[in-house]
């Protein structure tokens, strides 16, 4: 009977852990007794204590029972069957080991303490002639979020974007909405507000925006008499921050502004086109969406790129070009992941997430160590979907973290490359692009001018808004009460994205826009949706001329 009770307790623990998205190693759970299980569940359910948000925090609850973290790991490994722990068995951290599917002795999503591995990694990347420096990164510790965090988050967004808009000469006379509501008669005004609602009225052929600022709300009507402004207003999405120039109207009971112009934060026309000095040459390569683990991952093509970068493939001119590549940017979705969508197992060649990342590390390890590799996560990687996503988890992706020339950063992130004593370098904004689907579906000018085939239009749209996901529903996000990490505070020199599997290179106001394409052939889902990927492309930029070549492998 005691064994039945213990089994039920373990089931209850697993259900509790799953509800909180926390996973513990099966071998570790197998070792727990009734007392330890009760202690863990009580700690999870105790609302008076700080919330547990990771497996490592939960394991600390049992430290009085096991004096050190090392002893906990020993308890876990001792429960592994001998057939799995033998020297000939599978080891996801050892290159070339066979994969036995899901069954392996390693813990699932238990934090591994790498000490100052991240600091050492960044120190390596910031050294040498060709430096990589992190300008903006997000790796805040998870914590419980309250309703007040959402309010503070949107207030922080409004304040930041309002500051950018106030820098526009057209909005030098901005007043608050509360002052607008006090005005009588017709008077020219300018305001800044966040879009609460957008209504298109087909009968009168006009668009009405409901705007709010910290002092109040007001409606703004744009008619079709000015086609350019009307088209711009139709592309507005809810929750973005805009400036409006117009005139007051309506009655005291029903005030309205008749809009004459709409302004977005945008990229200044004075944005400098930076170019590396002649005596500091180099190339940067941009790719994305590798999807290792998928049956459709085009490994042979990927290896062609690897061999080219190693200088072992191509003609003399192509090998000479490869020798000048100093940086490789990877825009997320290193792996296809596990459990990303229903029935995904049928599409996987590698069904173990540890093995997927092991294979990624084996492929990337073949690249010359002289090439600095900068990687962000995507929605297929093994981590939270909410943005900003932190850098890839060290416990699951340890083989990738161990690569000597790799830098793993958050999504989004800004890094500076190629700087020296006389040149400030280039700022590179990296964002995987999970919000892109929303804007393809909801912004008319994008949808009717190519949709998924025109990543550059989406990137231009987001640059104009100075935000990577301005609409509340465009991506799941973390409401940071101090700031909105998805704001494009400083205009980058290069804007790299991925996600939609279509390579695209363009420019907007001296910002180079690059979508990194993919290394995955067309999937059954893409066939159903009519989406055609464009795999095995590398965008290669000459950092002196800023010219971009598109290489096909």
Strand-helix topology:
Layout: H1 2-19, H2 26-31, H3 34-45, H4 55-60, H5 69-78, H6 82-85, H7 117-125, E1 132-136, H8 147-166, H9 177-182, E2 188-201, E3 206-213, E4 216-223, H10 227-234, E5 241-250, E6 255-263, E7 283-287, H11 299-310, H12 316-322, E8 325-330, H13 353-364, E9 372-375, H14 398-401, E10 406-408, E11 413-417, E12 426-430, H15 436-442, H16 444-447, H17 455-465, E13 494-497, E14 503-508, E15 511-516, H18 524-529, E16 537-542, E17 548-552
Helix pairs in contact: 1-3
> Which class of secondary structure composition applies to the elements?
alpha/beta
Q: Report low-confidence residues grouped into runs of 5 or more.
A: 60-115
Percent helix? 25-40%
Average pLDDT confidence is 84
What is the count of structural domains?
Answer: 3
Distance between the termini: 63 Å
Using the alpha-carbon principal axes, give the shape. Answer: globular
Q: What Rg is obtained from the alpha carbons, in whole angstroms?
A: 26 Å
Total helices: the number is: 18
Explain this structure:
By secondary structure, the protein is of the alpha/beta class. Helices cover 29% and strands 20% of the residues. It has three domains: 2-85, no CATH class; 124-142 and 272-552, Purple Acid Phosphatase, chain A, domain 2; 149-263, Beta Barrel (OB fold (Dihydrolipoamide Acetyltransferase, E2P)). The protein has a six-stranded mixed beta sheet with strand order 1-11-12-13-15-14, with helices on one face. The protein has a six-stranded mixed beta sheet with strand order 10-9-8-7-16-17. It has a five-stranded mixed β-barrel with strand order 2-3-4-6-5. It is built from 18 helices and 17 strands. It has helices spanning 2-19, 26-31, 34-45, 55-60, 69-78, 82-85, 117-125, 147-166, 177-182, 227-234, 299-310, 316-322, 353-364, 398-401, 436-442, 444-447, 455-465, 524-529; strands spanning 132-136, 188-201, 206-213, 216-223, 241-250, 255-263, 283-287, 325-330, 372-375, 406-408, 413-417, 426-430, 494-497, 503-508, 511-516, 537-542, 548-552. Strand 9 (372-375), helix 14 (398-401) and strand 10 (406-408) form a beta-alpha-beta unit. Helix 1 (2-19) packs parallel to helix 3 (34-45).
């Amino acid at each position: 009977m005691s064994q039945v009770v213990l089994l039920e307790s373990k089931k209850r623990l697993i259900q509790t852990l799953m509800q909180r998205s926390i996973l513990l190693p099966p071998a570790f759970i197998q070792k727990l007794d009734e007392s330890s299980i009760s202690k863990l569940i009580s700690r999870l359910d105790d609302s008076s204590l700080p919330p547990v948000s990771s497996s490592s925090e939960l394991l600390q609850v049992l430290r009085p029972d096991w004096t050190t973290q090392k002893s906990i790991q020993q308890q876990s490994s001792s429960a592994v069957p001998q057939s799995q722990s033998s020297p000939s068995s599978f080891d996801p951290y050892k290159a070339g080991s066979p994969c036995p599917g899901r069954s392996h002795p390693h813990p699932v999503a238990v934090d591994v303490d790498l000490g100052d591995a991240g600091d050492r990694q960044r120190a390596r990347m910031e050294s040498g002639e060709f430096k990589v420096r992190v300008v903006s990164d997000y790796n805040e510790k998870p914590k419980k979020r309250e309703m007040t965090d959402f309010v503070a988050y949107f207030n922080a967004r409004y304040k930041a974007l309002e500051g950018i808009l106030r820098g526009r000469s057209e909005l030098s006379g901005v007043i608050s909405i509360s002052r607008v509501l006090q005005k009588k008669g017709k008077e020219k005004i300018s305001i800044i507000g966040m879009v609460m609602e957008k209504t298109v009225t087909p009968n009168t052929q006009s668009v009405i925006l409901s705007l709010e600022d910290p002092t109040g709300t007001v409606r703004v009507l744009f008619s079709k008499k000015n086609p350019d402004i009307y088209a711009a207003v139709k592309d507005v999405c809810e929750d973005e921050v805009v400036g409006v120039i117009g005139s007051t109207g309506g009655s005291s009971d029903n005030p309205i502004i008749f809009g004459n112009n709409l302004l977005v934060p945008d990229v200044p026309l004075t944005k400098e086109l930076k170019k590396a000095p002649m005596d500091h040459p180099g190339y940067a390569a941009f790719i994305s969406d590798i999807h290792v683990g998928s049956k459709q991952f085009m490994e042979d093509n990927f290896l062609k790129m690897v061999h080219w970068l190693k200088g072992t493939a191509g003609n003399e001119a192509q090998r000479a070009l490869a020798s000048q590549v100093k940086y490789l940017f990877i825009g997320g979705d290193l792996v296809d992941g596990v459990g990303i969508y229903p029935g995904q197992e049928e599409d996987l060649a590698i069904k173990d997430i540890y093995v997927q990342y092991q294979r990624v590390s084996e492929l990337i390890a073949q690249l010359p160590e002289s090439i600095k590799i900068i990687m962000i996560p995507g929605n297929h990687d093994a981590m939270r979907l909410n943005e900003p996503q932190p850098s890839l988890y060290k416990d699951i992706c340890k083989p990738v973290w161990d690569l000597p020339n790799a830098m793993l950063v958050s999504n989004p992130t800004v890094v500076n490359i190629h700087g020296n004593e006389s040149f400030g370098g280039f700022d590179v904004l990296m964002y995987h692009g999970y919000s892109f689907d929303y804007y393809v579906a909801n912004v008319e000018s994008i949808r009717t001018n190519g949709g998924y085939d025109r990543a550059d239009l989406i990137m231009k749209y987001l640059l104009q808004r100075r935000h990577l996901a301005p609409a509340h529903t465009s991506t799941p996000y973390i409401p940071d009460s101090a700031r909105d990490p998805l704001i494009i505070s400083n205009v980058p020199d290069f804007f790299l994205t991925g996600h939609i599997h279509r390579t695209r290179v363009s420019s907007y106001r001296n910002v180079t826009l690059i979508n990194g394409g993919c290394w995955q052939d067309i999937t059954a889902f893409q066939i159903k949706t009519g989406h055609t990927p464009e795999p095995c492309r590398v965008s290669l930029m000459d950092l002196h001329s800023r010219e971009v070549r598109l290489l096909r492998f």
